[in-house]
Amino acid sequence: MYDYLIGNVTRITPEYIVVEQMQTGWQIFTPNPYAFTKNDTVQVFVHLSVREDAHTLYGFQTLNQRDLFRKLIQVSGIGPKGALAILATGEPSHVMQAIELEDEAFLIKFPGVGKKTARQIILDLKGKLGALMDEITLPSSDTELPLFGVNPYENELEESLLALAALGYSERELAKVKPKLEECDTLTTTDAYIKEALKLLLKLT
Fold first, then answer.
1. Each residue of 30-53: pLDDT tens digit?
2. Composition of the chain by helix, strand, coil, percent to 5
3. Is 0.70 topped by the overall pTM?
4. Which residues, listed in sequence order, are joined to residue 58 by a DSSP beta bridge?
5. 79: Cβ–Cβ under 8 A, 6 or more apart, which residues?
6. Using an 8 Å Cβ cutoff, are 152 and 109 in contact?
7. What is the pLDDT confidence band of residue 148, given thresholds at 50, 70 and 90?
8. Residue 183: which pLDDT band, with cuts at 50, 70 and 90?
9. Both ends of the chain: CA-CA distance in Å?
10. CA-only gyration radius of the chain, Å
């Protein structure tokens, strides 16, 4: 029904953004809301989920993200929230490589994905990703797929820094606390990084 929306980002929350279009604010759930910038005019590729109790819009910055989301929600045991979590912490190309290479160890690193669900993803989607695979070169079987880089929670760290920047903290301030945040191996969520960063920022004043 809907393919994309073009409008102005008026609100950013940890779960969704609001895009205003023709005096209507669209609540759009997205893998990484902090990848958007408030007051920017954006194009968001959307997927409408219709249930008896809710009509929910999910939005994506690229068509590949949306197409992979649509594939993932067809897998038994994965709903929209689970698919968003996978897209929030992994590059679509890496996820698709893992599926084609049957790399269960890679897939179970995602939130809410256990061995049973990882196996189901592979059974349901291997060889069925179609045009999504056209521009992807599969590595050899002994090549390790990168997921998060050196820090397994690097995505959460970057989200926290974007959130703090949206709150008005300068790049200089954030650059001072980032190394200390990277050293904290007990931080695993965006909220935890934000709380620790605020403590560090207070010490700078």
1. 998 988 999 999 999 999 998 888
2. 45, 20, 35
3. no
4. 29, 47
5. 73
6. yes
7. very low
8. confident
9. 51
10. 18
